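TL;DR need structure tokens for one chain.
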Amino acid sequence: MAAPKKGRSASAQSRPGRALVLILIAIAALTGGMFASGHTTPRLGIDLAGGTSITLTAKNEPGQPNAINKTNMDTAVDIMNRRVNGLGVSEAEVQTQGSDNIIVNIPKGTNSKQAREQVGTTAKLYFRPVLTTEVSGADKSATPSPSTSSSSKATDKSTDKATASPSSSVTPSATATSQGRAVTDALKADSSPSAGSSASSSPTPTPSGSVDPATAKLQAAYTALDCSKKADRATAGDGAKPADPTVACGQNGSGQWQKYVLGPAEVAGTDIKKAGAVFDTQSAAGWKVTMDFTAGGSKKFAAITGKLAQQQPPQNQFAIVLDGEVVSDPSVAQSLSGSAEISGSFTQTEAQDLANMLKYGALPLSFKESSVTTVTAALGGEQLHAGLIAGAIGLALVILYLVIYYRGLSAIAIASLLVSAVLTYVLMALLGPAIGFALNLPAVCGAIVAIGITADSFIVFFERIRDEIREGRTLRPAVERAWPRARRTILVSDFVSFLAAAVLFIVTVGKVQGFAFTLGLTTVLDVVVVFFFTKPLMTLLARKKFFASGHPWSGLDPKRLGAKPPLRRTRRASAPVDTKEA
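>> reply
TL;DR here they are.
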């Protein structure tokens, strides 16, 4: 007698509890993380929570009358979007309005001050040699004598933020005449050609000894500049081109405002390849910004630092100028190249913001804030209320259909919908602080649409099981034979939905991305729930008498489904034949 054939592996049948335990542990861990983080509700977008709306107006650059054009405005919008949105789902909207305005909508819960700095800061960075400097205005009374002042140092891997007033600072008794002479002498010393600038870029005294108009204008600007006044700081150096000397303001390590005469820009922010914020554990400097130069930028940086290393203070210093303000003025002792660091008295947020702006590049235009208004969430709240009512009605109709048509099987579908809803809610709450995800009205619509996608997966599986029962199979083998076919259909359907969501997310901007992101997230969760919850639960319940016996209310009654006779071969025992009688 031949040995019976060994049945195929039934690990999916015999150990469905493992998958159920796994998904329950995942839900518990995610829920625990949500409560531990303190973010128990999803972050709402500006249309649901309100927020701040900022109108930025582009300003004409000196010597560039046609700078405000569609190309530059679109570039500015793209850079602002990358600065404030990160992955693009944090709901901070940036869009043009008219020919010279940009509207930035920042949702409530976001650090509006930080976001305003991110979008409004031009982030034009230049490395300029220091020609002369002194403590400005009312801060002169606290200025240390030249013999006690000091300046910070730059190393091959480090560019330190100034922590003391430069050694060229003058006493409070300095007159306008001495200031003008200091500017003239500094320009004489800087009149030789240097890398990145031409000899003609720096104004020099005329052969007769008189001061040329450009130098006289610079002298007057430096003499009149009072950096302790906000109005003077805002206009210092306005209209100066990168190739021209200019005046600027900056704070030293003692908190005093200093004014500077700076030479032509030798290295620009466009010469920076990448930037990042790091915490210096080797010194007391704290947070700092690291910068790596491009190949061309590294050569320029080496050339200017090599030249400055041969000068006397303060002309051995270079100023790191961000949007017209000196953020650091280190001295140089040797030629440097490759990379640099800006360090000293930065908070983590300040360092990250500066690195973020340098990383994404400078805006092609300068902007001024035309208006800042607060947006209420009243209209969005009404729309959300209406949307939730619509979603509740849709969910109720789906459940009613499942109960009427699938009867006992509807319990599995409802339990799966609840698991999917819990996972969706928890992940939305966690993604808010993690990647800046904000739930807006289109995202709510995406979650409502996902109800139909999830229910469709259950229906495909249940119908495959019913088809097997109609063929005359009992429930347990029907479940296992139906699953491979149903699984293939579910994966193809969800892949198409996810692909549509991904394409929509890539090619759209603003609120539509919220819809696409939510749709893609819920589609992925549908696969997880069906594989790790619905199928194992169905396998377990197939062993219960209520479902296995085909109870009329189980939704799997063979008679109601029109099942064929069981697929079994019956053998009739034949009586032994009496050969003699035959």
